[in-house]
Design a protein that fits this description.
This protein has 269 residues and is mainly alpha-helical. The protein has one domain. It has ten helices and no strands. The longest helix is centred in the last third of the chain and has 29 residues, at 209-237. It is globular, with a radius of gyration of 18 Å. The N and C termini lie far apart (47 Å). 30% of the residues are buried.
Length: 269
């Protein structure tokens, strides 16, 4: 089992998420979303502070422990459940940085190695396509340089607002479809995930009630969608379905939650 220790920045982010998870487990009713959300109003300085929080949390991760975990998977040809949980959490911090680049950098694109790392760890955790040791080798090759973040240039206010509008619009278009292919479903999860990451960072740094409640709301929505994906993936691994050919139907509750979020955001832009 890989022992988990946290640096000071990581500890703060973990504490916010753990409180959110506890809140979700203690309440039977879903979190209330504020009627109006205004992520568009973040100033340049605020966006820079959120960007730094995400980047510093990722560079704080212990790459030696990640490499050890991957080497064990290569040598043993499998990944233990404990190490799977460990890598999933570390991937979460890489995804936070990836989202920060997409949200705040002038290119709105993450570094290629960071994108490659998050994708490969996801494949390794889900045990998709090729044997575990092959994905572990792919991830291990990406580790030495994926923490060397390029210097970023913050986007302008206009570029930031255009990015958010583009993402909310594309989520709305996906919500209009009666069914989603696995590829489109994954696209929907990623776009909602970026907003969840935005509010996780905001709840950590600014700690307003609006940001905390919004993060809770999006965390629960992300869990719903993640559980649906896991169910389909498990059926595919058992040979019960052909994953890439499936048509995924969003539940009424999932549609309601996504619609509530879009309504709250789009009325602010």
């Amino acid at each position: 089992m890989t022992e988990v220790t946290y640096g000071p920045i990581t500890s703060t982010l973990v504490a916010v998420r753990n409180r959110a998870v506890t809140d979700l487990s203690l309440h039977t009713q879903r979190p209330l979303l504020p009627r109006r959300l205004d992520p568009f109003s973040l100033t340049l300085n605020q966006r820079g502070a959120l960007f730094n929080l995400a980047i510093n949390a990722w560079t704080e991760q212990d790459m030696t422990k990640i490499e050890l975990c991957l080497q064990q998977a290569i040598n043993g040809g499998r990944i233990s459940e404990e190490d799977r949980i460990f890598l999933k959490e570390k991937r979460g911090f890489a995804k936070l940085s990836r989202s920060a680049y997409q949200l705040f950098d002038e290119t709105h694109r993450p570094p290629e190695k960071l994108r490659h790392f998050t994708k490969a760890v996801g494949k390794l955790i889900d045990n998709e396509d090729v044997p575990t040791e092959q994905w572990a080798k792919i991830v291990l090759d990406a580790v030495p340089i994926c923490q060397q973040m390029p210097i970023y240039q913050l986007c302008t206010d206009q570029s930031y607002r255009e990015f958010l509008n583009k993402y909310t619009h594309s989520i709305g278009k996906l919500l209009q479809k009666p069914f989603l292919t696995p590829k489109l479903f994954h696209k929907l999860r990623k776009k909602i995930g970026i907003f969840m990451d935005l509010y996780r960072l905001s709840a950590t740094l600014f700690s307003t009630q609006e940001e905390i409640q919004t993060y809770l709301f999006l965390l629960q929505l992300n869990r719903f969608l993640g559980n649906k994906h896991d169910d389909f993936l498990m059926q595919a691994l058992k040979g019960q379905i052909h994953y890439s050919r499936e048509q995924i139907l969003l539940s009424d509750e999932e549609r309601l939650l996504i619609g509530q979020f879009l309504n709250a955001v789009t009325t602010s832009s």
